[in-house]
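User: We ran a pulldown and think these components assemble together. Before we commit to crystallization trials, I'd like a predicted model of the whole complex to look at. Sequences follow.
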Amino acid sequence: DGGITQSPKYLFRKEGQNVTLSCEQNLNHDAMYWYRQDPGQGLRLIYYSQIVNDFQKGDIAEGYSVSREKKESFPLTVTSAQKNPTAFYLCASSPMGGHVETQYFGPGTRLLVL
Amino acid sequence: AQSVTQLGSHVSVSEGALVLLRCNYSSSVPPYLFWYVQYPNQGLQLLLKYTSAATLVKGINGFEAEFKKSETSFHLTKPSAHMSDAAEYFCAAQGGSEKLVFGKGTKLTVNP
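Assistant: Here's a predicted model for the assembly, 226 residues in total across the polymer chains.
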């Protein structure tokens, strides 16, 4: 069954701590994306990657970092520099990152600050 | 830059009534347009997309949307609401070489 998995479903972060959110896809898609969702704000793009070992900043990249060492994996690290990390984080993928392509979404990770 | 406006952050309808969720985009270039649905604590699922082939686009679960260039709109409709339609709906647009831009969402409540 092809799809996108995100783990964990819930994640708690302490002050000054870095945390990493996992995103894996078995759709053989080239492009992957990370979005942040806040109530009433819609989705905002954090980072995206169209090919292994390459990624670009989105609209709200500050305080976040990513890596793309494998085609199927695109982990997101929320660093201690992100002062307001509480949000719902969604990972998505699309075949080649071009126009008109549907983005397929994972089930999300909810990050909470202790 | 592309922007998407969804009129009404909350819409409430009775079961069996017409569903109308509004979406307007801003672009000098006709964009590609999408409607996604999100159930609580889940990811987004594509309902339908406009790719300049036909102005009336049919999607899953009985939803459809009509692209109106003169009004820069892409409103989502369903003739008869079902309780299972209760969710949050997002309109998104992609123009030229830009990335996908989402509206802020409309939460649909269906009353019995």
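The two ends of chain A are 35 Å apart (CA to CA). That may be worth checking against your pulldown data before setting up trials.

User: Thanks, that helps.
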